[in-house]
Amino acid sequence: MIYFDHAATTPVSLDVLNTMKPFFSEKFGNPSSIYALGREAKDSLNAARHSIQKLLDADKPGEIIFTSGASESNNLAIKGTAFYADKVLNIKPHLLVSAIEHHSMLDSAKYLAKHFGYEVEYIPVDSEGRVDPEIVKKMIKNNTVFVSVMYGNNETGTLEPIAKIGKMIQSIKNQRLKTHSETPLVFHTDAVQAFQYFNCDVNRLNVDMLSLTAHKFYGPKGVGLLYIRQGTKVLPQQQGGTQERGRRAGTENAPYIIGMAKAMERAVEDREKNEKITSELSDYLTERIMKEISDVETIGPKDVMKRLPHISTFIFKKVEGESILINLDLKGIAASSGSACTSGSLEPSHVTKALGYSDMEAHGSVRFSLGKLNTKNDVDELMKFLPKIVEKLREMSPIK
């Protein structure tokens, strides 16, 4: 199989797997237990937390909260902030999320609006999927308590000006302090796709919260984290224990957390090399598709400096993207159309539509997301089949 869907998930690296193995059957203690086996697990957990703290340049290890993945982290970020404002500070919250966020953020925002009456607004993007910091500034109200803009989009590859938005939000927070306002203003970013390729120093980005999940950068599925800057208040969304400084109850998934720390270390070490591999391969893929197939349009920024290096998404006009994927799968080639979390939906991608494409155009999108093990030969193999598949489907299509 040729795998072009690394934005959906990645294989676990062998060194990550080997790092995890002892904690399944040898060092299997519960980190909350006081005897030696538990203390051993706790020490390893603390070492992983300290390692991640340094990789994110967080001020304290306690700012790293381990979760089951980015979907839980995003839920905790927006719900925890909104509920704290409402239930503790008695402030009816206004929430801002970009129109191209992952569904774990968008659906959480809709949930809060529907069931609690919170005001939610969606930050628009331009035709390349980019958020304008000035628009964000204009949308912030006196009761705005939460702003979320993802670092790198999982469908378009668009990089957002997170540090610039964060600096602007920090300025507004400082103004609130001067007027003795108790209304918090939390800036969150989903950095799931960006971490492997870009510096996620939380102080450089000026963020209060940051979500990650391990399986996007060659770590295990089912583990992630939410960075919460010291002083940022959230109400926990899971009760039943005092783990994670009382912010996320439940026995810590020690093997997976330790695996995530190892995967993050390796991702940082290999950033420059992996960025070079994937960007050159993405350029080659794009060049061949645009040259060999007619009526195709790329989605996202044309400037490679404003996009993730591993994601290339195309609209194949007059054809269904899902039909292309089925035919590629029959040839042993895996790609995707839109986000993996919504692949079972018949609705066109909300991201593509936010960029201004019609429903029909959005249905023709196909995403190829490359990884560190992909080669030029993989692209050549894809291009043996893709032009013929598109041609055949267009001949069958009622859209002319």
The CATH architecture of the largest domain is 3-Layer(aba) Sandwich
Count of discrete domains = 2
- How many H/I helices? 14
**Low-confidence runs (pLDDT<50, min 5 residues)?**
none
Using the alpha-carbon principal axes, give the shape: globular
Amino-to-carboxy terminus distance: 33 Å
CATH topology-level fold name of the largest domain: Aspartate Aminotransferase, domain 2
Most strands sheet: 7 strands, mixed
| Class by alpha and beta content | alpha/beta
Quick one: CATH class of the largest domain? Answer: Alpha Beta
The radius of gyration over CA amounts to 22 Å
Percent helix among the residues? 40-55%
Indicate the mean pLDDT. 95
Strand order of the largest sheet: 2-8-7-6-5-3-4
The amount of beta strand, in percent, is 5-15%
What is the string of helix and strand elements?
EHHHEHEHEHEHEHEEHHEEHEHHEH
The number of E-state strands comes to 12
CATH superfamily of the largest domain: Type I PLP-dependent aspartate aminotransferase-like (Major domain)
Summarize the entry for a quick read:
This protein is of the alpha/beta class and 400 residues long. It has 14 helices and 12 strands. Helix 7 links the parallel strand 5 and strand 6.
